[in-house]
Design goal:
Order of helices and strands: HEHHEEHHHHHHEEEEEHEHEEHEH
Mean pLDDT: 83
Pfam families: HTH_11, WCX, WYL
Low-confidence stretches: none
Strand content: 15-25%
InterPro entries: CBASS_pafABC_assoc_protein, DeoR_HTH, HTH_11, PafC-like, Tscrpt_reg_HTH_DeoR_CS, WCX_dom, WH-like_DNA-bd_sf, WH_DNA-bd_sf
GO molecular function, one term: DNA binding
Distance between the termini: 64 Å
Number of strands: 12
Protein name: DNA-binding transcriptional regulator YafY
Shape: elongated
Organism: Laceyella sediminis
Largest sheet: 5 strands, antiparallel
């Protein structure tokens, strides 16, 4: 990733004092042109990198900044030891390297800070996987990862949500792990797009590179696009009465129901409530799954749909049990 490479450049210049463009390119296994772009990027964000001309020239950091770079306080050092999600590191193929890096950093830090870092490491663990973990990075994760690293244009075949397969040429700018799902954020001829990795059917890495937008920040883009996506999701509101036996179950299993608001119980003990879903079909399937434990008050069209679905279930199993006397349709 480019961010990793920029950090590596800073560490190289911090450790060695001065390096030529060719030396940096060889150390990071990139082109000379890429190093020049990276230096422009560092300068653009205020990092004082200076180019010295001549036989003994090269790139270096201003002395004051170089001294400040090594100064980390206790809290900053401790924050480095909040372990990232293991399944994300495994997907990226760097789980072992990440652990070794933390161990090396632990060994190199001042003894006064080592105990605080160890406490963070042993007391906080981040797990973003699900209880029944499934792989959702797709078959072409490694190819896309390499394309992101090398700023390489790719052609993909992508299955849209409606099942149609489309072909797109994209500039992959970054990978995002959200829970157990991976997404690639890319620039296309139609603007910025996000593709779910598990829906990518083919990846063809082209003999073309692209110039990454200097102002692009993956985390900022993701947060903004995610917020816009959530705000534009459809909302379907229903008014119901709930059996007291299922209220806590609804609150605990809130993966489908987006929001629940309840009122004071009715004389018969049932609880009026408002539920929000994305769409009508989702609401109908959910309510039907609770059989006689939810009474729909509104909208009337939802009651009709649920009745039709229930009748379809009866007809389906009625045909299977015809002649056995185990099911009678009204």
């Amino acid at each position: 990733m480019r961010a990793d490479r920029l950090l590596s450049i800073l560490l190289f210049l911090q450790q060695r004092g001065k390096m030529t463009t060719k030396e940096l390119a060889q150390a990071l296994e990139v082109s000379v042109r890429t190093i020049h772009r990276d230096m422009d990027a560092l300068s653009a964000v205020g990092i004082p990198v200076v180019a010295e001309r001549g036989k003994a020239g090269g790139w270096r950091l201003l002395d004051d900044f170089r001294a400040k770079l090594t100064v980390l306080n206790r809290e900053e050092i401790s924050s480095l030891f909040v372990a990232p999600s293991l399944h994300v590191l495994q997907d990226l193929g760097i789980a072992g390297q990440a652990r070794l890096a933390r161990q090396k950093l632990m060994a190199a830090m001042p003894s006064a800070y080592r105990q605080a870092a160890e406490q963070i490491w042993e007391r906080i663990y981040v797990d973003t996987s699900t209880w029944r973990q499934t792989t959702d990075r797709g078959r072409f994760f490694r190819e896309m990862q390499q394309a992101v690293w090398r700023e390489q244009r790719v052609r993909i075949r992508y299955e849209r949500a409606d099942g149609h397969i489309v072909e797109r040429k994209i500039d992959p700018l970054g990978l995002v792990a959200m829970g157990s799902k991976w997404y690639v954020v890319a620039r296309t001829g139609e603007g910025m797009r996000t593709y779910r990795m598990s829906r990518i059917q083919a990846v063809d890495r082209l003999e073309e590179t692209f110039i990454r937008p200097a102002s692009f920040r993956l985390a900022d883009y993701w947060h903004e696009s995610k917020q816009a996506f959530v705000e534009n999701l459809p909302q379907y509101r229903i008014e119901v009465e709930l059996s007291p036996a299922i209220v806590e179950r609804l609150r605990f299993g809130g993966r489908i129901v987006k929001e629940i608001q309840t009122d004071a119980p009715l004389p018969d003990g049932w609880i009026p409530a408002t539920l929000w879903f994305d769409v009508e079909q989702e609401a109908a399937e959910y309510v039907l799954g609770f059989a006689d434990q939810i009474r729909v008050r509104a909208p009337a069209a939802l009651r009709t749909k649920i009745i039709q679905m229930a009748q379809a279930v009866l007809r389906h199993y009625g045909r299977q049990m015809d002649g056995q006397g185990e099911l009678q349709l009204p």
